[in-house]
Amino acid sequence: MCGIVGAVAQRDVADILVEGLKRLEYRGYDSAGVAVINNNNELLTTKRLGKVQELAQALEQQPVTGGTGIAHTRWATHGVPSEVNAHPHVSNNTIAVVHNGIIENHQTLRSQLQGLGYEFLSQTDTEVITHLVHHELKTSDTLLSAVQKTVKQLEGAYGTVVMDSRDQDNIIVARSGSPLVIGYGLGENFIASDIMALLPVTRKFSYLEEGDVAQISRFKVSIFDTNGEPVEREAKDANVSHDSGDKGEYRHYMLKETYEQPTAIRNSLEGRLVNGMLDINTFGEGADEIFKNVEHVQIIACGTSYHSGMVARYWLEELAGVSCNIEIASEFRYRKSFVPKNSLLVTISQSGETADTLAALRLAKEIGYQSSLVICNVPGSSLVRESDLAFMTKAGAEIGVASTKAFTTQLVGLLMMTVAIGQHHGMSDEKQTEITQSLMSLPAKLDEVLALASSIEDLAEDFADKHHALFLGRGDQYPIAMEGALKLKEISYIHAEAYAAGELKHGPLALIDAEMPVIVVAPKNDLIEKLKSNVEEVRARGGLMYVFADSDANFASDDTMKVINVPVCDDIIAPIVYTLPLQLLSYYVAIIKGTDVDQPRNLAKSVTVE
Ligand code: F6R
């Protein structure tokens, strides 16, 4: 979603800001803008609808100079994507504001400010912050105190950065519900919504906590908590490669990240299996004690992360013998739910900032969950900081909006969690060893799957003129079918649905004809004969099938069915193995359709609003 970058420096910052925005492009946006204060204390603002590149070109034609500036990529919530609605928003040629999140009481504030004579130019909720700061400044000694008074009147979520053209030395930032990270340089300091934006200029960061307001100047950062008390927020060196933002030899980040999965999984496993046995400390301090007492697991997540949670439910109940429910975060947070005794809340999130998942975690603490664990890819993110335990997936930065390596490493984490909980619920040493050995075999197995890319690319041709597709799976492959369908619709814009194959005859069979390709995920397992009956039901209705199966499953290509041979693997890791061919299929279909693979329309990488 929206991205923020800000800087207070001696050098000109426009290029740093634009580079920062480029590095946040993966989050999804529809317009971009920058404002800097020049040496004459004038505010120079440039905004463009569309890509950051358009903004960069505009700045090339008409450069802006100045050492203090803010920049933003906007993902429209209130008001259409347009130059007028793009940030920064400005009040009286002096106050400039960028904002992530949603101000829920913006209508009330807008009316009040209009009553005070403020004229609104945009349809955004953000513009109320701009005028409110301007108004509060009339009765405040400093910009800091005007912003402190302003944020007290805001309801909703914000990560916001404010500057005043009359003060080149400071920018003021505030966080509630939308992450902000301070980057420390030498004689210059920065702010951003994501450390990715600032990696070219610093590696030292501290995250603001909820309710914090901070004043950032070249040599000093002062942070204040909700009560206005000065606080320290620990600064840490980021352990992230600068180059994680580069596509390298790949045409798209999504393809690069799909190919990175064997390495990502190796990184995810590294140091966590000691002599083939799981090191429980990998989940954090006190993990053993918490897992010992767990009698029930509630998983909460959204989108792709929800699908990994669905797989985990099969594992937890079958392998660890612990009851498990899974629910979409936006549903869970708005209903009254029953909390079984000794329940562990597990959230799953690539970004660690998904608004609904975070709200669900906070709710869970209020309604009696004994403890919480997050499976996450972003160290220092809100979910990591607010959970009792954390499993860091270590997939490396994922830039493509469509999640690939974050998903498969989540599955690795969830399988390790299954072992960790299973240890306390009678899982035998043999079973634990079997699972950990299967995990260790994964990277090599995934290399074999990636070698199927060219045959999957050929297959993609068949989908280019299709408008719908149906994905079928059974057991722990049903969530993989769901993930396959989500990937296809996200990046190729083909409508796709997934069904547990046993549900076919309860409705979706009516859809089957030659225009509805049916993708079947079919490893040889205990359910294969049942699945084969479902395949026959489709064949009998003239359906065309694409079956991903291992040789043991005994499918053969014919007029109505194309079989893609996936390497034989252990049942336990099959959900991970079968994910990759489906990722590749969506990717190649999207390439044929010519869509924006890394930044599909209307989508954002990190969904920080509900
Ligand atoms: C799809 C995708 C999304 C995310 C969802 C939750 O490819 O990436 O469905 O999974 O928005 O995001 P996180 O995992 O960051 O909580």
TrEMBL record:
Pfam families: GATase_6, SIS. Residues 2-219 form the Glutamine amidotransferase type-2 domain. InterPro entries: GATase_2_dom, GFAT, GFAT_N, GlmS/AgaS_SIS, GlmS/FrlB_SIS, Ntn_hydrolases_N, SIS_dom, SIS_dom_sf. It is found in: Cytoplasm. Keywords: Aminotransferase, Cytoplasm, Glutamine amidotransferase, Repeat, Transferase. The keyword Transport does not apply. GO terms for molecular function: carbohydrate derivative binding; glutamine-fructose-6-phosphate transaminase (isomerizing) activity. GO terms for biological process: amino sugar biosynthetic process; carbohydrate metabolic process; fructose 6-phosphate metabolic process; protein N-linked glycosylation; UDP-N-acetylglucosamine metabolic process. PROSITE patterns: GATASE_TYPE_2, SIS. Residues 287-427, 459-600 form the SIS domain. The active site is at C2 (nucleophile), K605 (for fru-6p isomerization activity). Catalyzes the first step in hexosamine metabolism, converting fructose-6P into glucosamine-6P using glutamine as a nitrogen source. Homodimer. This is Glutamine--fructose-6-phosphate aminotransferase [isomerizing]. It comes from Colwellia demingiae.
